[in-house]
From TrEMBL:
<dbReference type="GO" id="GO:0061630">
    <property type="term" value="F:ubiquitin protein ligase activity"/>
</dbReference>
<dbReference type="InterPro" id="IPR004162">
    <property type="entry name" value="SINA-like_animal"/>
</dbReference>
<keyword id="KW-0863">Zinc-finger</keyword>
<dbReference type="Pfam" id="PF21362">
    <property type="entry name" value="Sina_RING"/>
</dbReference>
<dbReference type="InterPro" id="IPR013010">
    <property type="entry name" value="Znf_SIAH"/>
</dbReference>
<dbReference type="InterPro" id="IPR049548">
    <property type="entry name" value="Sina-like_RING"/>
</dbReference>
<feature type="domain" description="SIAH-type">
    <location>
        <begin position="59"/>
        <end position="117"/>
    </location>
</feature>
<comment type="pathway">
    <text>Protein modification; protein ubiquitination.</text>
</comment>
<keyword id="KW-0833">Ubl conjugation pathway</keyword>
<keyword id="KW-0862">Zinc</keyword>
<keyword id="KW-0808">Transferase</keyword>
<comment type="similarity">
    <text>Belongs to the SINA (Seven in absentia) family.</text>
</comment>
<dbReference type="GO" id="GO:0008270">
    <property type="term" value="F:zinc ion binding"/>
</dbReference>
<dbReference type="InterPro" id="IPR013083">
    <property type="entry name" value="Znf_RING/FYVE/PHD"/>
</dbReference>
<feature type="domain" description="RING-type">
    <location>
        <begin position="270"/>
        <end position="304"/>
    </location>
</feature>
<protein>
    <recommendedName>
        <fullName>RING-type E3 ubiquitin transferase</fullName>
        <ecNumber>2.3.2.27</ecNumber>
    </recommendedName>
</protein>
<keyword id="KW-0479">Metal-binding</keyword>
């Protein structure tokens, strides 16, 4: 059955008493059949205990105009929240923390250029030194803007990279930690997430946010935004692994990993068994890497004949853990994506392999 379009004039009679948007997001609740609360505001306490099932049933036959000015989309019941999450006209609170402006997400670059230019990096990476507290930066990859929020305390470093546009959340970002005194480094990867101003807030990190609609605001101190940031690492692990108390780190947007033929992935192949290395990875005295299974069977490096050691290659282990790979049966239709270990386990029983 085709959905019936509901006009803006009708929408005006069905506004949420809390957010002032149309109420057609489940659950729709009321207290007196005159004032309604929409499902967007379900996390906000209010005296609207009765769910209006009849109105929800009627709404399921309709399509609704987008609530954001400039967007011409009409959205069926049940798809409103997802559309509003992705809409390029969605209105956000400025993520800078101290700015009170609200504007359409597609104007964020212009706004930062005019009012927060010191937050912008023209490159696709940003170099950080020990910086306690919460911070925000904007940088670019393929001309698309990304926001980086990072937080550092005495114990851990937390980093999140967020795409402004929905099409930009399909790329990973890389964090490289460099020791100033030993020339050692560690590299990790994590996934870019679509920016949501209700979840990715600088003031929430500072525990000074009082916005009722923010998931981690100080209104509900039981939620901790840091636990849900894409990347976290213990500083003790860094200093022990890199043999250095002073560590700087570089956050960089990376291109999406397409397949296993790329040179970057080839470097993860064990020189003995030719399998991608994961788990514990060891090295010889010279530094050639070898997988754990082959290391147990051999005494000398197959590349240089130097003795194998018990030294771990933590950098390669971190890459194998955070790398995103397509299944080897992708040409047969398999869409599985995972790190090295996950792909190994999946490919043992991959249904596409039998096609």
């Amino acid at each position: 059955m085709d959905h019936i379009y509901i006009t803006q004039a009708v929408i005006e009679h069905f506004k949420c008493v809390l957010c002032d948007k149309h109420v057609f997001v489940s659950p729709i609740t009321t207290k007196d059949d005159r004032s309604f609360k929409c499902g967007r505001c379900v996390c906000i306490k209010s005296d609207h205990p009765i769910q209006v099932h009849a109105l929800e049933k009627l709404a399921s036959y309709f399509k609704f105009p987008c609530c954001f000015e400039g967007c011409d989309e009409t959205i069926p019941w049940g798809n409103v929240i997802e559309h509003e999450r992705l809409c390029n006209y969605r209105v956000i609170n400025c993520p800078s923390g101290h700015c009170k402006d609200r504007y359409s997400i597609n104007k964020i670059v212009t706004h930062f250029d005019q009012k927060h230019k010191n937050y912008i990096s023209s490159a696709n990476q940003y170099r950080l030194n020990n910086s306690f507290g919460a911070h925000l930066r904007m940088f670019f990859y393929n001309q698309e803007p990304y926001l980086m929020i990072f937080y550092e305390n005495k114990v851990r470093i937390y980093i999140g990279v967020y795409s402004v546009n929905a099409k930009g959340d399909n790329v990973p970002f890389q964090v490289q930690f460099n020791a100033s005194s030993t020339n050692k480094s560690l590299i990790f990867r994590s996934n870019v997430v679509l920016f949501n101003d209700q979840e990715h807030c600088l003031n929430c990190l500072h525990h000074i946010c009082n916005n009722n609609y923010h998931k981690y605001s100080s209104v509900d101190r039981n939620c901790d935004i840091k636990k849900n940031m894409p990347f976290v690492i213990d500083k003790t692990y860094l200093t022990m692994t890199l043999d250095s108390e002073i560590v700087c780190y570089i956050v960089k947007i990376m291109g999406e990993m397409k397949d296993r033929d790329q040179t970057f992935v080839k470097n993860l192949e064990c020189p003995v068994c030719q399998c991608l290395m994961s788990g514990s990875i060891f090295s010889c005295r010279v530094g050639h890497a070898i997988c754990e299974d082959c290391s147990d069977r051999l005494k000398a490096c197959p590349l240089c004949a130097e003795p194998l050691t018990n030294m771990r290659c933590f950098a390669l282990e971190g890459i194998a853990e955070s790398l995103r790979l397509l299944c080897i049966n992708k040409e047969k239709g398999c869409e599985f994506v995972g790190n090295v270990d996950q792909c190994k386990n999946h490919e043992k029983t991959c249904a596409a392999a039998k096609r």
